[in-house]
C-alpha cells in the first residue's frame, strides 16, 4: 500500500518535472518557439517602456507648464513696462519748496501706481529663478540670470520713480530686448508637442524594425535546423 | 563681530524710493549721505568692514541702488578700491543675490 503510494507520488513528481522541463526546453532550447518568447516578452517590454515613457512625458509636461508660467509672468511684466515707460504723464509734476526744504510734489497717480506694481512684480519674479536652475542647462541658466539682472536695471533704473520720470522709448526698447532674450532662453528649454510625436514615431519605427529583423533571423534559423 | 559695522537698509526704509529728496523721503542720496558715508568714514578710521544687510526690505528700485552705491564712487570721498574692499553686501536668497550683483556692478561701473 505504502509502496503504491510512493510509486504514484514519484510518478506524479516525475511528470511535473518533465512538464517543467518541457516548458523550459520549449522556451529556451527550441528555436521553433522563439515566437512564444516574443509573445511573453513583447508585452512586458512594452509595458516597461510605456511606464518609463509615461513618466518621462509627465516630467516634460510638468516642465513645460512651469516654463509657460515664466512666459506668462514675462507677459505681465511687459504690459506694465509698456504702460510705465511709454505713457505720457498726464499731470505736470511740480516741486514745491519751502525754506529750501522739499515739501510736496504732484505725480501722475495712475502711472505712479503702475511703477509700484512693476517694481514688485520684477522683484517677485526673481524669487522663482531657483526653480529655473533645475529646468535649464547651466549655461542657459547663467545667461538667464544675467538678463534678469539687466531687466531689473533697465525696468526700474534711470528715472524710474523719480520726479524727472518721462516716457522713454529708448528705455522701453532696451527692456524689450532683454525680455526677448529671456523668452528665447525659456523657449529653448520647452519641448514642443510635435517634437514629442516625432520621438514617439522614431521609437515606434525602431521597435518595429527590431522585431522584423528578429523574426526574419529566427525564421532563417528555424528553417536551417 | 567687533571688526565690522552692520548696516540694515530696513532700518532706513523697508520700501526705499527714488534718487533724491524730490522723489521721496527715503531716497538713495539720503541713504548714501546719512548712512553709508558715515559708516565708511568710521570703517576707514578703525579699519573695519561695513556689512550691508538687505534683509527686511520689501523691494528696491534700481534707481535707488544706483544713486546710493554708484553715487558713493561719484562723490569722490572714497576710492573705488576702498569701497569694494570695505563694503560687504549680505544676501540670503536669489532676490537679494540679484540686488547684490547690481550693487557691485554700480560701484564697478560708476565714474
How do the helices and strands line up, and which of them pair or pack?
The complex is a heterodimer of chains A (225) and B (111).
Chain A: H1 2-28, H2 34-86, E1 95-98, E2 101-105, H3 109-127, H4 129-135, H5 138-155, H6 169-189, H7 193-224
Chain B: E1 4-8, H1 9-12, H2 28-46, E2 49-53, H3 62-74, H4 80-86, E3 87-90, H5 94-109
Parallel strand pairs in B: 1-2, 2-3
What does this protein structure show overall?
The complex is a heterodimer of chains A (225) and B (111). By secondary structure, chain A is mainly α. Chain A is 79% helix and 4% strand. Chain A contains seven helices and two strands, in the order ααββααααα. Chain A has helices spanning 2-28, 34-86, 109-127, 129-135, 138-155, 169-189, 193-224, and strands at residues 95-98, 101-105. Chain A has a two-stranded antiparallel sheet with strand order 1-2. In chain A, a hairpin with a 2-residue loop joins β1 and β2 (101-105). In chain A, α2 (34-86) packs antiparallel against α3 (109-127), α2 packs antiparallel against α6 (169-189) and α5 packs antiparallel against α6. The longest helix of chain A is centred in the first third of the chain and has 53 residues, at 34-86. Chain A is rod-shaped. Chain B has 111 residues and is α/β, with parallel strands linked by helices. Chain B has five helices and three strands. Chain B has a three-stranded parallel sheet with strand order 1-2-3. At the A-B interface, α3 and α5 of A face α3 and α5 of B.
Amino acid at each position: 500500500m505504502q509502496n503504491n503510494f510512493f510509486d504514484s507520488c514519484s510518478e506524479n513528481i516525475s511528470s511535473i518535472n518533465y512538464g517543467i522541463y518541457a516548458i523550459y526546453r520549449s522556451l529556451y532550447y527550441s528555436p521553433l518557439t522563439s515566437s512564444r518568447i516574443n509573445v511573453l516578452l513583447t508585452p512586458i517590454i512594452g509595458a516597461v517602456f510605456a511606464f518609463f515613457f509615461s513618466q518621462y512625458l509627465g516630467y516634460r509636461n510638468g516642465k513645460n507648464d512651469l516654463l509657460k508660467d515664466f512666459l506668462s509672468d514675462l507677459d505681465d511684466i511687459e504690459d506694465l513696462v509698456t504702460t510705465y515707460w511709454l505713457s505720457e504723464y498726464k499731470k505736470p509734476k511740480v516741486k514745491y519748496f519751502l525754506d529750501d526744504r522739499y515739501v510736496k510734489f504732484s505725480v501722475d497717480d495712475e502711472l505712479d501706481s503702475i511703477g509700484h506694481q512693476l517694481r514688485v512684480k520684477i522683484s517677485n519674479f526673481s524669487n522663482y529663478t531657483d526653480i529655473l536652475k533645475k529646468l535649464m542647462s547651466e549655461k542657459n541658466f547663467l545667461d538667464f540670470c544675467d538678463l534678469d539682472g539687466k531687466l531689473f536695471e533697465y525696468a526700474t533704473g534711470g528715472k524710474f520713480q523719480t520726479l524727472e520720470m518721462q516716457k522713454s522709448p529708448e528705455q522701453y526698447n532696451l527692456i524689450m530686448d532683454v525680455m526677448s532674450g529671456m523668452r528665447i532662453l525659456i523657449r529653448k528649454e520647452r519641448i514642443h508637442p510635435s517634437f514629442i510625436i516625432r520621438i514617439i514615431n522614431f521609437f515606434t519605427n525602431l521597435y518595429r524594425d527590431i522585431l522584423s529583423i528578429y523574426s526574419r533571423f529566427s525564421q532563417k534559423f528555424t528553417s536551417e535546423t | 563681530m567687533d571688526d565690522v559695522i552692520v548696516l540694515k537698509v530696513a532700518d532706513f526704509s523697508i520700501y526705499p524710493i527714488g534718487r533724491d529728496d524730490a522723489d521721496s523721503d527715503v531716497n538713495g542720496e539720503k541713504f548714501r549721505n546719512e548712512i553709508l558715508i558715515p559708516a565708511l568714514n568710521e570703517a576707514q578710521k578703525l579699519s573695519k568692514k561695513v556689512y550691508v544687510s538687505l534683509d527686511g526690505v520689501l523691494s528696491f528700485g534700481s534707481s535707488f541702488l544706483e544713486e546710493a552705491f554708484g553715487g558713493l564712487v561719484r562723490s569722490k570721498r572714497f576710492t573705488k578700491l576702498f569701497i569694494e574692499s570695505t563694503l560687504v553686501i549680505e544676501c540670503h536668497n536669489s532676490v537679494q543675490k540679484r540686488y547684490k550683483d547690481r550693487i557691485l556692478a554700480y560701484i564697478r561701473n560708476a565714474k
